[in-house]
Design a protein that fits this description.
Blueprint lengths: L2 H21 L7 H17 L23 E3 L8 E3 L2 H12 L7 E7 L2 E8 L2 E7 L5 E3 L2 H4 L15 E9 L2 H13 L8 H9 L4 H7 L2 E11 L6 H10 L9 E3 L2 H14 L7 E8 L2 H7 L9 E4 L5 E13 L5 E12 L2 E7 L3 H6 L3 E2 L2 E7 L3 E7 L9 E2 L13 E3 L6 E3 L5 H12 L11 H9 L16 H7 L5 H14 L4 H7 L7 H10 L3 H5 L3 H4 L7 H12 L1 H12 L9 H4 L8 E5 L7 H10 L3 E3 L8 E4 L5 H9 L2 E3 L1 H8 L1
Parallel strand pairs: 2-11, 21-22, 21-23, 23-24
Antiparallel strand pairs: 1-6, 3-9, 3-10, 4-5, 4-7, 7-8, 10-11, 12-13, 12-16, 13-14, 15-18, 16-17, 19-20
Amino acid sequence: MNVKEQIEDLRAQVKYHNEKYYDKDQPEITDYEYDKLYKELKRLEEEFPEFISSDSPTQKVGSSVKRELRKVEHDVPVISLQDVFTKEEIYNFVNKVSSQVSNPKFVVEMKIDGLTVMLRYHNGKLTEGITRGDGEVGESVYENLLEIKSIPKEISTKLPYLEVRGEVYMSNETFEKVLQNQKDANGKKYKTPRNLAAGTLRQLDSRVVRERNLDIFVFNLEISEGKEFTSHSESLDWLENQGLKTIPDYKVCTTADEIWKYVSEIGEKRSTLSFGIDGAVIKVDNLSDRKVLGTTSKVPRWAVAFKYPPEQKETVIKDIKVQVGRTGRLTPLALLEPVILAGTEVSKATLHNQDFIDSKDIQIGDTVVIQKAGDIIPEVVRSIPEKRPSNTVKYTIPQMCPICNSPTVRDENGADIRCGGNECLAQLIRGITYFASKDAMDIEGFGPSSVESLMSEGYIKNIADIYHLKEYRDELIEKGIVGREKSVDNLLNAIDKSKENDLDQLITGFGIKNVGKQTARALTSSFADIDEISNATYDQLIMLPDFGDTVATSVLSFFSLNSTHELIEKLKRAGVNTQSKVSEISKDDRFTGKTFVITGTLPNLKRDEATRLIQMHGGKVSGSVSKKTSFVLSGEEAGSKLTKAEELGVKIINEEEFNNLLK
């Protein structure tokens, strides 16, 4: 798998799990498994900025807005903090602030691991509570916040309007009680208090919130009409006097040494706290100084969040199993003696590939050191050979697929080992799940569990069978494989709707090796239908945007298979669109050789619409500005990208000028 394919695949996975977690409250993976995907995507995009896309999950602040709850606009944008990881970075931050304001003071606080909310009080009464959402628009969870005992429904000072920012969390003790209750009732299992707190706060039934005993720490005053404050610490003291539960044990510091000492003290006691933290926050105390320092489009310049190095512990590898992914990749997974690490139980850790196992000399039965990268992702740091018992077993990834018994093959010039079979159930499940994902055919409600159930029951064997599920509607309702009548009908309607998708979504859904969303758009912009693509020559393909030898060869190989042509015919008979809706427009390649960067909010076009127009006309879209950038398409609230474009002398255009380029 090349870098571009990895990035496209990671984006699809992250978007899918975002939707399951934020929009449906049905997380299918743990927080640290999700964060592993997200961090790997971010790392690859930073290393290969030419592949950054404006619609990537890494380019958004916060989550999407949950559909079932009322949307509310924020009065103050809810932005993140810049992360720092070393003592040197903290000292650099302090020095930079000190160079811009005189004798600054700093407040050091614990960074609570929970869910951010904004509380609004009018004339002293609590009137609204909003989640972070995308930073501009959140969702009202007011009724649920009324069930949190530590949130006062009325405060003594009747200001016309007060807005504060806090973190809703669940204590470790409460978390353990909920887990025990769920275990007794065979309910859904949650891995972390933060995960459970977030899911609880988004419940549509407030009684669930009452039962789960959520709590809150308020950590910032956003708006206080009718009352002025000079410092952050002064505002926290006042809020506490109003009955709000503020961030505990904060400390005002004046030097970098003081700050580092207290940050270290928090780090030493974090495992003994009754609640989870995921770092320490260093903020400028004086509010006037904050205004001088200002804010970028994504982070304030007056605060940073320090992330502690991961806690390490020893445990034993009981066994190693392999998982088979969508592309057939075999990933070894270490099964560990359970150990509590960074507040949660860890019993599994990925071993990546055979080279990783060999380089760290890992054997079954070994004592190993594990940690959570960023306190999230379990990983094996090293084995301890001196503690190795005599009965340890060296592990080699099998030469036969454990799912379908087909021979495995190692990637040429790569470390990955893959199943060579075309009918491997594990690959088929993940392949069909990818086909239905948001970046491909966007069939809502068709996740891995539904796919696996339908395949196990024999209703689908390939993606074409999806479009015949309506023939079994009554059976599916009776058996409850994907839910009852409403769930089945919703799924069948989503499948039917997907037939009208543009051809690039179908090509993306095929999961062709080295072909992602952008490559699929390049194909469907240049050819009128799937038959033209099937008959394309190497010379035609190699001339397309972003096509090199590897991608062109992958496309030719896929469409040379008899099974591919049989699949296409089945999809046509089922009524799935195989015509390109943009190919005629795309004959105009006026943007060939041009690279665009999109920043800010455009008046009429969404970012993905602008991206599509650029790509349809032969251009490329990048996520970062460089000397190679041809145009920066700028909208409202454009941030650092606009500043960099001005510094580099890159041409900046607005939406009207962009439309003129298209005329």
